[in-house]
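for the recovery benchmark. tokens below, seq after
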């Protein structure tokens, strides 16, 4: 055999052996490597709606590798979760975070979600003419009212519409059933708004005195803009009509009464008094 060819084959065999050995060591290290440490946390076993009181049937444990999400509840603390209300929707397999639960003993429903100093005010709206059907919790809305202003006798005097409240957070939206005049149940759209006590008083008056409509706004738009109300008469005003000219009122001065003077005329032993008008006047 050619000596040169034999040398090349030996070198190739030596290189292949080294590569095989390195690959073997890498695979062996990977197989025998210690598995990453995991932490057991409490998660939702199913989709859980806002206001639900958690039970053991709603919960399951999952293993998380690496850092645990802030506020996550460990499996050993599962007992502290049972009986607490959910203040934000949870989804299947999602780790339960402390901030998504109401305080222990506060119950369920909407109340635990109301911050201190605020109020939840229910507003009945008409889903035919407004956007209540598209309102979901945590959206922001403006509250508009329309009706006859105080002192108006009939609708001919003009309905007025104005923006009552701006940038109000929606707590919940849904359908309630109320009885009509015949005693039959009918669906009513109700939206709960997060307001201050003063705003709650304003909404209470508006609910009884005017028609309420909600207007959606961008949640990033938090600016409160001054908005002037409008009246029905403005809808039919001609935008091209010239503005009425101001009426000039000319003040007229009353003619001053003519001043008179008197002259005493002596005729012998007799005297008389004659009156004359001032120059420029009338006698």
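predicted aa per position
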């Amino acid at each position: 055999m050619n000596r040169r060819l034999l040398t090349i084959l030996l070198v190739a065999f030596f290189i292949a052996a080294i590569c095989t050995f390195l690959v073997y060591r890498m695979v062996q290290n990977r197989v025998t490597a210690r598995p990453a440490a995991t932490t057991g946390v409490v998660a939702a076993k199913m989709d859980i709606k806002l206001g639900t009181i958690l039970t053991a049937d709603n919960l399951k444990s999952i293993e998380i590798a690496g850092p645990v999400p802030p506020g996550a509840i460990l499996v050993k603390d599962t007992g502290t979760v049972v009986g607490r209300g959910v203040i934000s929707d949870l989804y299947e397999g999602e780790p339960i975070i402390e901030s998504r639960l109401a305080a222990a003993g506060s119950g369920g429903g909407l109340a635990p979600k109301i911050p201190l100093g605020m109020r939840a005010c229910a507003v009945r709206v008409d889903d035919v003419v407004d956007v209540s059907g598209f309102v979901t919790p945590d959206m922001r809305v403006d509250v508009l009212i329309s009706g006859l202003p105080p002192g108006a006798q009939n609708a001919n005097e003009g309905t007025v519409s104005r923006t009552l409240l701006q940038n109000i957070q929606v707590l919940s939206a849904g359908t309630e059933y109320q009885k009509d005049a015949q005693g039959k149940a009918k669906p009513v759209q109700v939206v709960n708004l997060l307001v201050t006590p003063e705003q709650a008083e304003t909404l209470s008056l508006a609910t009884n005195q005017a028609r309420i409509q909600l207007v959606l706004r961008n949640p990033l738009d938090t600016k409160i803009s001054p908005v002037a109300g409008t009246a029905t008469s403005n809808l039919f005003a001609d935008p091209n009509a010239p503005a009425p000219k101001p009426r000039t009122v000319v003040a007229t001065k009353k003619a001053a009464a003519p001043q008179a003077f008197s002259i005493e005329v002596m005729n012998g032993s007799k005297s008389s008094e004659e009156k004359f008008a001032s120059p420029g006047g009338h006698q």
